[in-house]
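Hey Z.,

So I finally got round to the magnesium ion thing we talked about over coffee. Here's the setup:
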Amino acid sequence: MTPASTPPAPTSVDEVIALVRAHAGPLAAERVALDEALGRVLRETVTAPEDQPPFDRSAMDGFAVRLDDDSTVFRIVERIRAGEWRPRELEWGQAVQIATGGALPGDGLQVVIKEETSVEGDRLTVHRRGPERCIRFRGEDARAGWTLVAAGTRLLPGTLGLLAGIGHPQPLVSRRPRVLHLVTGNEIVPPERTPETGQIRDSNSTLVRAFLAQWGIAPEQLRAPEERAAARAEIRNSESDQPPWNLLLISGGASVGPHDFTASLLEELGFVLHVRRTTTRPGKPMLFGSRAEALAFGLPGNPLAHFVCLNLYVRQAIDAFSGLAPRSGFVPGRLAVEFLDAPNPRETLWPARLAPGVDGTGLTPLPWRSSGDLTALATANALVRIPPHTGGLAAGAVVEYLATSPDA
Ligand code: AMP
Ligand code: MG
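And the result:
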């Protein structure tokens, strides 16, 4: 065991991700209405309760006639609108007008499409008749009992439409984590306020809220008093609420300055710290700890570092809470332009704009000057992984990147 006085070694991106995944597990499951379920992860396997479609339906607007009837002139004996079902045995020379989606009146039929016919009163003349029956047969999409959505699937708009279509209005999904966010820093003022010299506007509270809103999570946010004992009392106070929070995020104070109390605060609260700093830029001072089921992050106050740590690490915790299988999220892509930077001994997570190019993907690294520089976040939708000691990379070079937005 490492003695407490020995500074722990800095941790790499992959190690931090592995540590987060090792300490985070799926939260309890609950049934929610479909309108509450977007983006949640399914915790049951959903099978088709009946054949899909459940009855033979017309695929087109037209006329149902017997398949074995090669007449060209028919008498229209019935008109069926979508939503109606009037079973009947058709005789030779009889046709039933039917709308798209209408239930076929019987078996052994073909729908002749309207465009290939002409009608005068109840007399139907068929001009052309192809081999296509224009029927969506019962069970052709799925048979009763087939698996339609596997456990572990993230529910997207299309999945929700499918669940509605099969009559599964209360899917079993992972509960959303309860998140407590504490923002620290004597210098920060709310975005509405004009800062005095030395003060800066609090951008991190908004960033954290918007980041979590992507999963429908609304954090409780506290402005921490500039004093550890008072901050601790506020957190302890919120711990009496039920259900207990699953994730504690503390913005700022993660480093070693005289007022940086996040590490000791977390330890006083009973968290075991697994990460104290990382080998990456931005985001070097970063704390990650666990206490029973709860996780905590101390995020460096600089806004760009915040953005990086939220997307790289906090996202892993959210995925684990929802029961998604571990994956780093990094995928290969290509630089759209040449990349130039002074070689840096640390791995860099570089904000970039990903726009689909002719040959797959095109990543444009965006300029940033320091981890306090928010300007790149105007358009960043990805983080490119620049290995340590990298100077230039040619346009077209293959890199790893992490999408930070669904449009990347
Ligand atoms: P800290 O991690 O507390 O040492 O803060 C590092 C830098 O981030 C300092 O320049 C802070 O002023 C800045 N910072 C801290 N909190 C925020 C915040 N909520 N919004 C914007 N910048 C912040
Ligand atoms: Mg601070």
